[in-house]
Amino acid sequence: MSAGVGLLVTPTTATVTSGIDTRNAGAASGLMNTTRQLGGALGLAVLVAVAGASDAGRVPADPAADHGRVFLVMTAILLAVVAATFALPRRAEGVEAGPAPREVRSEQGG
């Protein structure tokens, strides 16, 4: 999981901040990170609830069946996210991503 997150953070951040004015790029990046953390926490809570809900009244618990349900829920969520990406608006042709960052020059007196 760590390798997957590591491979996705940079492209996701670049995508999120690509259409944002340079003055607002920090806020957009912070919002993306907050959303990612909140989504991870809520997603884990939902999956733990799905795994634990099926244990009621069963002794001993069947971890294989619980994990199977969790993977089905994860697949359903993934498919919903993929479907939602097609509903997102696309950037119009010929529209630039935003102003290029200004070059900062340091002048050294001497």
Question: Could you describe the 3D structure shown?
Answer:
- The protein has 110 residues and is an all-alpha fold.
- It has one domain.
- Helices cover 64% and strands 0% of the residues.
- The radius of gyration is 21 Å and the shape is elongated.
In short:
This protein has 3 helices and no strands.
Helix/strand layout:
Elements: H1 2-17, H2 25-53, H3 63-87
Topology as H/E string? HHH
Report the end-to-end length measured between terminal Cα atoms. Answer: 53 Å
How many independent structural domains? 1
Question: For the residues shown, what is the average pLDDT?
Answer: 79
β-strand amount: under 5%
Strand element count? 0
User: What is the tally of helical segments?
Assistant: 3
Shape: elongated
Oligomeric description of these chains? single chain
Output the structural class. Answer: mainly alpha
Largest sheet geometry: none
Q: Estimate the helix proportion, in percent.
A: 55-70%
Radius of gyration: 21 Å
Query: Low-confidence runs (pLDDT<50, min 5 residues)?
Result: none
Kindly list the characteristics that best describe this protein:
single chain
